[in-house]
Amino acid sequence: MAHELVAEVWRGEFLESVHHGSVVALNGDGEQVLAVGRPQDTTYPRSSNKPIQALAMLRHGLDLDGELLALACASHSGEDFHVAGVGRVLARAGLTYDDLRCTPDLPLGERARVAHLASGRGPEPRYMNCSGKHAAMLATCVAAGWPTDSYLDPEHPLQLAVRDALEELAGEPVGAVGVDGCGAPLFGISLVGLARAFGALASAAPGTVEHRVATAMRSHPEWVGGTGRDVTALMRGIPGAVAKDGAEGVYAIGLPDGSAVACKIADGSSRARAVVLVAALRRLGVRAPEELATFPVLGHGRQVGAVRPAVALAG
Predict the structure, then answer these.
(1) Which InterPro entries does the record associate with it (predicted)?
(2) Which of 142, 145, 244, 311 is spaced 20 to 30 A from 230 at the CA atom?
């Protein structure tokens, strides 16, 4: 994959490091306004796939809306309200935390993780950032009459439905199949396809299941991310935006007019992904929260520099 320089790490006036990657920005007609690197190549969207996974679940009987549907789309921080929400989703389906098959983990959010460790607790599936998705997957299986013990199998009816929904919205076939960090099947598509899918979600007509997903995420961005998370700030700061971050430097966002951006940082770093996404949004004429335009570089606890977009993203 031929990535290009997309971000620079400046410590004072010294260029200390660089990040390479790929990014694509589509306008409301699906035309490429910006293409850097190889956005047409297959990549794993990681957790950026979650809104499409939730769409597939709604199509097959999942009965969630509002904050609990947003939680099904989340890589949550593991704050108390997130974990309690996971329990609510499971209880509605007659299940408990013991039915979760996601990887035991500590809370993703720094504050929640510190409080969790201070209380003497260790890793558990409920605190894993994907537990909302897993609870929703189990609830879907109950609603559809599918087995719950094998819901992580790529050939399970639930996962086949997810794959179909992803291929439909992305407008392309899945190019790779793997296992995500939480244990769920992972379907690879291009960044172009990922942007196309987010544009479709964000511009969906009222009354559609796509619109249900978008409305839940827009209305409850703190359930999609959490306190201090950039994905939450993006959806709060850009009217109508539907955004989702993913591991290994992936990010995607769709807007109500159907325009969208998707990016991948080649080294998997998370510090440059929002910077690159915001720079690409500006090429579409969209103003994102200014605090996300750069990422602070610290020295002795204070900001002494910043991660900035590379020249390739300037317009």
Answers:
(1) Asparaginase_II
(2) 311
Q: SS3 of 313, please?
A: helix
- The number of helix segments (H) and strand segments (E) in the chain equals 11, 11
Residue recorded with tokens 């960044």? 191
In the chain, what is the straight-line distance between the N-terminal and C-terminal CA atoms, in Å? 24
User: Cα separations (Å) of 48 from 55, 177, 221, 315?
Assistant: 13, 15, 14, 26
User: What Cα–Cα distance (Å) separates residue 178 from each residue in 33, 152, 170, 269?
Assistant: 31, 11, 18, 20
Q: What is the tens place of the pLDDT at every residue in 230-255?
A: 999 999 999 999 999 999 999 999 99
Q: Tens of pLDDT along 91-115?
A: 999 999 999 999 999 999 999 999 9
Q: What is the extent of the structural domain holding 289? A: 4-313
Query: In this predicted model, what pLDDT tens digit does every residue of 54-101 receive, in sequence order?
Result: 999 999 999 999 999 999 999 999 999 999 999 999 999 999 999 999
User: CATH number for the domain including 191?
Assistant: 3.40.710
DSSP string over 131-169: HHHHHHHHHHHHHHT--STTTTSTTSHHHHHHHHHHHHH
CB atoms within 10 A of CB 114: 12
pLDDT in tens, 188-199: 999 999 999 999
Helices 230-237 & 273-283, crossing angle to 10 degrees?
A: 20
3-state secondary structure of 109: coil
Average pLDDT, the chain: 97
Q: What is the dihedral of CA 283, 20, 221, 214, to 10 degrees?
A: 60
CA separation for the pair 48, 157 (Å, rounded): 21
**Could you tell me how many residues make up the chain?**
315
